[in-house]
Design a protein that fits this description.
homotetramer, mainly alpha, Arc Repressor Mutant, subunit A, Tetracycline Repressor, domain 2, about 65% helix, elongated, DNA-binding
Chain lengths: ~230, ~230, ~230, ~230
DNA sequence: AATGAATGAGAATTCATTCAT
DNA sequence: GATGAATGAATTCTCATTCAT
């Protein structure tokens, strides 16, 4: 998987004037986006408000509308931004993996690391389902497409069970990773009630065994469906 | 996995009067809950409104507060209700499975069947994350607990890789099933743009192979981690 | 001209619920309409605000939306109400006029009397041109239709120049009356800067002579159009 | 009626600097005024915005405040400009009229012609009543003063009923012309839904008869006012 | 047990105007 | 002269909840 950075907008333009952004404008836009990440993550979409975002960004309320059309539009921009960043983190992590399966594992490790550092990812992305279903699909699809390409390559290399359907498997892995991350990173609290800095290695290893089992080519075809006969 | 039906409320009482519900009262409560299922599923939590629910239930607005404390409280009641029903559907499906692994498969089949028939499940349950995180945890946990118990039993019976951690694996399966359901049931549309009545068997089989691989005891320990050596 | 009261709405319904109004509801609606008349007249459409209207009506802000869809919709209702009332005032005034021309004069007198008592008429109705052009047309048309019918009858009775086109003449009369009312009633101020209680009789007489000239059948056809020949 | 052009501003100065305008400055100011005419006419005062005006004028937003104090001030400047132009059009039209009454007719013709060519006149001028009542009075008064002077001259020449009060009559004529113009020019649409290029001659003739009747000296005093005795 | 009129806190959004460049 | 980013007061409208009937 290449580590290309997919840029979602060619050139940023002001929704108010339709003109491309100046240097100053781009900086303001970024501050708004950063503020939005915090506010949406802490309060959720509906509790969040434009004033809260602009206050946190340190700009006037009206300024918001110079850069975004609406609350929903900054939310979407944020999801796309997070998606780009998480995929970037995953690619980086996979960059120097030895084998295909190692790469897969490294990708998950990168994903969990990013999640631990940016809990906003879950909170924001999962809420997108109810705010902007299309961007949510985009988000999942972009990640899953990466998995799928990786799986196909691994199958060609003989590292992955050739009988597995890459698409279904990719979605399975995505769902697995997402829920494991939710359960063992976001829900987890240490003795002091604070979130863990990273995924518990024991859990990661357990998950790895699950994945390895699932993906590895069968050494001998079991007679599974008739196993009781 | 036992097919116990967890009843979440001992005796229903009116939040307004604190008195137990009459027959007529119980019927009204149920109508409200049914209306809520439709309205929440169609419009989402925030778009939904009490008036829409009472109108659909065919009762006066004020009546609502005879049975529920608030919008959030009927939502939570609905999530718990759906959880009870989906677990029931899964238990039923697993009831006459041959082997442990068959039961696992049957459980997923039951889950998908329920999902196809009650799309509200996803829409409502997943939104619970942002409305009532505690009930969402309850929902996931209750289902996962079932998986976990099943896995332990299967491990004891030698049907499942004894090296797998049951808890992690259960969450992995839950996430996998959830995302496969979302992608291949809820997002899927046929030529006429209508949702499929059931999960595509090919996808189900592909997923089954993935699960079988993951869970089956290894016939011989692969040297995977050292495969480059 | 008959003195029928044109009722513009069969049965009043709540825009929020679509249900017919109760006694209490109708009273509240009326209070809002009365408040709106004062507020729109004093401040104009754009300076007026829903809060100002509800405060003056002594009801909560939200109550407004039980009876009207929007600021524009109460404005339209008010124009229609004023139209009904001014036409009623005119009909009453014309009721016991001796001749056709007397009736015409009496109609204007009634119009000016209503205007003096309800300056809101002008302020609100004329502003309708920029808020709701359709209701403005309705307003003018309804009054002009009355004039026109009166003129036709008078022509048949031989009281009005048969060569005059009733439609054009009716609009001419409407415009005349409107501007005379504006100039000599609404703009007029006495020594203390207060608006006059009624139209100056001298002006009314001057206007009457103008109308009498315009409408009366010519005793002999002047050679006016050919006067240069 | 003389054809003097009343110039409302001696020398144009920048409201920002207080300095007289350069050639280039005057051109920019004029472009803004022309843009304002279109924008105010199309959208009305409140829908119009400074940005829309500057965009149409092709200048930067800030430039606006080099030439006008405020939205209201450019609006007022526009009304005064339109008033000057419509009076000019009327004077031109009356220039070579034969008789006094012909001149009166010609004046109306000129007014209607200008209206047909510049629908902005009505839209802008009539809205002035709610934006800047003083300029509206100025507008009406300046036109009416012209009528009144014409009427007095015509009375001295024996062309107009000496019993008519010139002031009242002038306002009556103004109102009449205004409403006829509104009804038969601005509201009128042909089969294709497009506004007519000019006033329907039949309507104009009908109106002329009305005016002729109203103004012409009575050949014999009718017994109208005593008709009931 | 049922009803629905009344409420008001709260949120999104617009735009005339300023001012540093 | 010209520009356009920044501002925030002000407005409309929604809806969960209360309570008198």
């Amino acid at each position: 998987m290449s580590s290309e950075l997919i840029d979602d907008e060619g050139e940023l333009v002001s929704p108010a004037t339709g003109r491309p952004l100046t240097k100053r404008g781009e900086a303001t836009r970024r501050r708004l986006l950063e503020a939005a990440e915090v506010v949406f993550a802490e309060q959720g979409y509906h509790e969040a408000s434009i004033v809260k975002i602009t206050e946190r960004a340190g700009v006037g309320l009206g300024t918001f509308y110079l850069y975004f059309d609406s609350k929903q539009s900054i939310f979407e921009a944020l999801v796309i931004d997070l998606n780009r960043r998480v995929r970037h983190a995953m690619s980086e992590a996979m960059a120097d993996a030895g084998s295909r399966l190692d790469a897969e594992r490294a990708g998950f490790a990168g994903f969990f690391r990013f999640t631990a550092e940016h809990p906003a990812l879950y909170r924001v992305v999962r809420e997108a389902e109810f705010v902007s279903p299309e961007v949510l699909r985009l988000h999942y699809t972009r990640i899953v497409d990466g998995y799928e390409a990786g799986l196909r390559a691994a199958q060609r290399a003989g590292d992955v069970d050739p009988e597995l359907d890459p698409a279904t498997t990719a979605w399975a892995l995505m769902g697995m990773g997402e829920l494991i991350g939710m359960r063992f990173l976001l829900w987890e609290r240490d003795a002091d009630g604070r979130p863990p800095a990273a995924m518990d290695p024991a859990v990661f290893d357990a998950m790895s065994r699950f994945i390895d089992n699932a993906l590895a080519p069968r050494t001998q075809e079991p007679t599974q469906k008739d196993e009781k006969g």
